[in-house]
Design goal:
Layout lengths: L1 H7 L4 E4 L4 E3 L14 E2 L3 E5 L11 E2 L4 E6 L4 H5 L1 H9 L5 E6 L4 E7 L5 E7 L4 E4 L4 E4 H4 L15
Parallel strand pairs: 2-5, 6-7
Antiparallel strand pairs: 1-4, 2-3, 4-6, 7-8, 8-9, 10-11
Length: 158
């Protein structure tokens, strides 16, 4: 994500890696187990002052952009329950991107002024995606640099 970092240099936005915890559920109650209340996005962008859950400053409340890299093990969760949580509990979120590991494809959900989400997708190395909320353009060629996809097996003739 060095390209994203480079494009955001000199702006109020900052890129963070998968080690940043984000609240993706209601505020925890005392003695409540935290399961399902937090997520670790693969990449996220925060614009402006970072807001945290408490004085420990380890749970972020206001990401602007979240990027998830889909794997066979995480795809259903990232497209389902996690995405639903992000929509409900992260009013600061403007863009949610899903990057496929199995094909050249990035799916983009963009929050509209009426809080509805607009879906678009881009495929092919020549494709790019504009994130107006942070003033960046992401090229698929940068996401998939040095990635080689295995050729699909031909169907057998019976």
């Amino acid at each position: 994500m060095s390209e994203l970092h480079n494009q955001l240099r000199g702006t109020p936005c900052e890129v963070f890696s998968k080690d940043t915890k984000v609240r993706s559920g209601p505020a925890p109650k005392p003695f409540q187990p935290p399961k399902g209340l937090y997520s670790y996005p693969d990449v996220l962008v925060v614009c402006g002052e970072m807001k945290f859950h408490d004085e420990h400053r380890d749970v972020l409340l206001n990401p602007t952009v979240i990027i998830e890299v889909l794997s066979p093990a995480t795809e259903v969760f990232d497209l389902g329950e996690k995405w639903a949580r992000y929509q409900m509990w992260l009013p600061s979120l403007t863009d949610y991107l899903l990057v496929s590991q199995s094909k050249l494809l990035i799916e983009h959900y963009r929050r509209q002024p009426d809080s509805e989400w607009l879906y678009s997708s881009v495929n092919g190395l020549e494709g790019s995606m504009s994130l107006a909320s942070i003033g960046c353009t992401l090229r698929l060629a940068d996401f998939y640099d040095r990635i080689v996809f295995s050729a699909e097996l031909p169907e057998s003739a019976d």
